[in-house]
TrEMBL record:
Top-rank taxon: Bacteria
Protein's name according to its UniProt entry: Putative pyrophosphatase
InterPro entries for the chain: Cro/C1-type_HTH, dCTP_Pyrophosphatase, DCTPP, Lambda_DNA-bd_dom_sf
GO MF annotations in UniProt: DNA binding; nucleoside triphosphate diphosphatase activity
Residues covered by the HTH cro/C1-type domain: 8-62
SUPFAM superfamilies: all-alpha NTP pyrophosphatases, lambda repressor-like DNA-binding domains
Annotated GO biological process: nucleoside triphosphate catabolic process
């Protein structure tokens, strides 16, 4: 099976670029890129996002060789936004603390803070008054989700598309339309 490094090299070769030209397009020193291609360095998620953005291949394919083509349309967070999130983290040297367990806890805590915006709310007026707080907590959840995807070396767009497909088989439109039941209850 092809390695990540081999797939990246294939992207370079398919675009008829020298090692130096490809490294320059990624804003990497040639020596660093050379070490990646030789398998001496593991490419970061942000580098994979950059390759995906510039050369129109999916991050998921770079990681695991599945689904090379990018999905049609704007179906995910932009590589630039993901890059900003990861740069914010890296500028503070926080990646060392971002293991899947702690990121899952952080996602859950931020989701609980979002839920807190609705605590003791009995009217739409009260909810509207807390809209800014809701937006901020939702942003925190999304930021931690991006960091979790990075820790798992997972492409967010591919994850969401795969899950939507899986849910589509569980929740057929003709059974689930306008119905809040769980899929196991719909089949009855």
């Amino acid at each position: 099976m092809e390695s990540i490094q081999q797939r990246i090299k294939n992207v370079r070769e398919e675009n008829h670029l020298s090692l130096a030209a490809f490294a320059k397009s990624l804003e990497l020193p040639e020596s660093v890129y050379s070490q990646i291609e030789m398998g001496l360095l593991i490419p970061s998620y942000s580098l994979m996002m950059t390759i995906s953005s510039i050369y129109a291949v999916s991050v998921q394919w770079l990681y695991d060789g599945i689904n090379k083509e990018l999905p049609d349309g704007n179906t995910g967070l932009s590589p630039a936004l993901i890059g900003k999130i990861l740069k914010f983290r890296d500028d503070r040297d926080w990646k060392q603390f971002h293991n899947p367990k702690d990121l899952a806890i952080s996602i859950s805590l931020e989701a609980a803070e979002l839920l807190e915006c609705f605590q003791w709310s009995s009217s739409d007026t009260q909810v509207v008054e807390k809209k800014q707080a809701m937006r901020e907590e939702l942003a925190d959840v999304l930021i931690y989700c991006v960091m979790m995807a990075d820790a798992l070396h997972a492409d967010i767009t591919s994850l969401v598309l795969e899950k939507l497909h899986k849910n589509g088989t569980k929740y057929k439109v003709e059974q689930a339309y306008g119905n809040s039941k769980k899929y196991s209850e719909l089949e009855q």
